[in-house]
Amino acid sequence: MPPGKGGGGHVVLVLDESVQQLPWESMACVKAASVSRLPTAALLSYLVDGQPAQRKVDSRVGYYVLNPGGDLAHTQAKFEAAFRSQPWDG
Fold first, then answer.
1. pLDDT digits over 16-29, tens only?
2. Which residues of 46-58 are buried (b: 16+ CB within 10 A; e: fewer)?
3. What residues are paired with 65 via a beta bridge?
4. CA 60: distance to chain centroid?
5. CA nearest 13: which of 67, 23, 3?
6. Which of 2, 22, 28, 32 has a CA 20 to 30 Å removed from the CA of 8?
7. Which residues pair with residue 36 across a beta bridge?
8. Which pTM does this prediction carry?
C-alpha cells in the first residue's frame, strides 16, 4: 500500500529485531489494511512463490514512516538520526 493511500490492502512487515517491539500494526497509516508480521523475507518469498527464495532483499533500498501523526516526539527523537543515516526514503 503506497504511503498516504489508506486503502484496505495487505501490509507484510519484515522487521529488524531492533524495531520489532514497536506497535507497527497500531499506526494510523496501516489501520485500514490487514497487517501481518513475518520473521524473514525468505519466508515471505516462499509463501508467495511456493518455493525457497532465490533472491535477496537489498537493504540499501527502503522506505520508512516515522511519526506520521506528529504525536510521537520522543520516538522520533530516538530513531530519526538512525533512519536518516540509511539510504532510505522517508
1. 888 888 888 888 88
2. eeeeeeeeeeeee
3. none
4. 14
5. 23
6. 22
7. 12
8. 0.47
